[in-house]
Amino acid sequence: MELIDALPHNLKNNPEIEKFLNGDFQTKTFKKGELISKQDQYNRNIYFVEQGLIRSFYYENGKEITTKFYIEGNIMANSDTLFQNNPTRYNFEAVEESTVKFCNYAKVEELCSVSLESANFSRFVLGNIITQMTDRISSLQFHTAKEKYLRLIHENPNIILRAPLGMIASYLGISQETLSRIRSEI
Amino acid sequence: MELIDALPHNLKNNPEIEKFLNGDFQTKTFKKGELISKQDQYNRNIYFVEQGLIRSFYYENGKEITTKFYIEGNIMANSDTLFQNNPTRYNFEAVEESTVKFCNYAKVEELCSVSLESANFSRFVLGNIITQMTDRISSLQFHTAKEKYLRLIHENPNIILRAPLGMIASYLGISQETLSRIRSEI
DNA sequence: CGTTAGTTTGAGAGGACTCAAAGTCTGTGG
DNA sequence: CCACAGACTTTGAGTCCTCTCAAACTAACG
């Protein structure tokens, strides 16, 4: 999926945005297992996933905890660095070979400070992210391991097929063994 | 807390925004236990909490599940209606007597479609909401009942003091009894 | 001061965890 | 093209956390 395809109609053929997309974005491909961004750094890039599967994760008690998966068409960034100016707690890792387009968020801010369309598009993107997060919170808040897994199958079957069991388990907040048992009984 | 005080400096004394705040907002006070907004409706208002404590909740298996608390200075809205155009799943209820300022989100959209400052302020607000939600997800994802409670004490002692135990328990995704036991052993 | 809402305590059941070990898959090098 | 190492998944056993149901207790409010 190309970045330009992700834009709503009213933003296509907008010269400001055209210039931005062509001028300020870089493309990079990461091999499976490669780290795209590391914890404890100030990484102000914003990434668009063109191809592949990427996850964010951190370590707790020596274990990796996957916080989110990003597939084709998703936007990815360290929100703790962008919005709070803290070094990020998260690592980004390519679960499969993945191609991303990225630019510094400062460029986005710059564009939004002069382009009303861009600022409003950015608002729209943020709104969508909030919607997704709301669903995720509700899934985590009051559901059993099995319910959470079934919900993920329903909402994002892609991830189930492409990510290893251990990553999915930690994403759901359950142990690997429990997830394996749930799979066998379905 | 007044709405105007919540604005960053660069937005104060902005005539567009001044006009908006004075013209389009209404103020209303709700008694303890009163519903501000009901589920299954298309409520496109956006609320600013001036005083009090409000919660959002829904019913699952006959039980009330509190999804979020809103205190003085918080902004409150049905994101499923605003961003996805679905009837909302949530009820808003005043936990204490509460005063809110509110306006239709269409007015915000209108303002943002002409005012660059407003659009960027809105982006800033959405960014902050995302930050909060990220923390909440991480709290829910992989922590025990006790850890979640201690974290809430740390991050929002206000709520612990002002909301009844049952609401807090469901907010944390644990049973009332478990929370009561955690409290007694601390 | 009684009624209702809210909280605590107890007992028992069950889900999910941990630790451990056995399978299974996958990719690399001989 | 096979064999083996390492990564990943499954299965088992035992434990503990948290749940549910029930009942007693306490606080709040008219």
UniProtKB/TrEMBL annotation, chains A, B:
InterPro entries on file: cNMP-bd_dom, cNMP-bd_dom_sf, RmlC-like_jellyroll
Boundaries of every Cyclic nucleotide-binding domain copy: 25-87
Superkingdom classification of source: Bacteria
SUPFAM superfamilies, alphabetized: cAMP-binding domain-like
PROSITE patterns: CNMP_BINDING_3
Pfam families, per the entry: cNMP_binding
Name of the protein: Crp/Fnr family transcriptional regulator
Species this protein is from: Kaistella gelatinilytica
